[in-house]
Amino acid sequence: TLRAPGIVELDERRISVISLRADAFIETVADVTTGSTIAEGAPLVTLYSPEIAAALAQFLTDVRSEGRSREGARQRLENLSVPGEVIDRIATEGQTTVSIPIMAPRSGVVLERMAVEGMMSEAGDTLFRIADISTVWVIAEVYEQDLAAVRPGLPVVVELDAFPGERFDGAVSFIYPGLTPATRTAKVRVELDNPDGRLKA
């Protein structure tokens, strides 16, 4: 049996950054703050973007005239991150919209909220960061001399100071290359299910 200290971290594969692909003005922001739980598909912001508005107008013109460039105009909107349901509604109703909603791409916890009503956001600016915490990582520090006994898939029992007497079952998923020079330890990733969100990074 090996014992090693570790810390709980977010699964970096389950973090989403919400940003825009065109300059835009933020009109409204949902009533969510850092730490709020949000569901996939929930509205985050509505915005107005001159570039997106021009692309919407071109798409609507192509829809009305049944032009050959309709698919190209749709692709341009998708490239600007306009939600598919908005594009479909415009194609069906034959009317464009000024305000574009941006939805949460996953369920999770809001790590960061940078969006403010009335702000001007440039393309690439981060508006939100959202993390799915249903699975978390524990990054353990294993001494060099113990590494030979560690391999992916190895069962791991995790005990946390926050929950005395409780044990959380996981498994080694990855052994990081390289050692920390000062401690001669290697980082070992353990994955834990966290469906109730009790484990905090």
Describe the structure.
With 201 residues, the protein is α+β, with helices and mostly antiparallel strands. It has three helices and 13 strands. The strands form three sheets. It has a five-stranded antiparallel β-sheet, with no helix packed on it. The chain has a four-stranded antiparallel β-sheet with strand order 2-9-7-4, with no helix packed on it. It has a four-stranded antiparallel β-sheet with strand order 6-5-3-8. Helix 1 (50-65) runs antiparallel to helix 2 (70-79). It is elongated, with a radius of gyration of 23 Å. The two termini are 25 Å apart. The mean pLDDT is 92.
Keywords:
18% helix; 201 residues; 3 helices
Largest sheet: 5 strands, antiparallel
Reading the helices and strands in chain order gives EEEEEHHHEEEEEEEE
Q: Using DSSP, what is the number of strands?
A: 13
Task: Write out the strand line-up for the largest beta sheet, numbering strands in chain order.
Answer: 1-10-13-12-11
Rg, Cα atoms, Å: 23 Å
Round the mean pLDDT to the nearest integer and report it: 92
- Indicate the overall shape: elongated
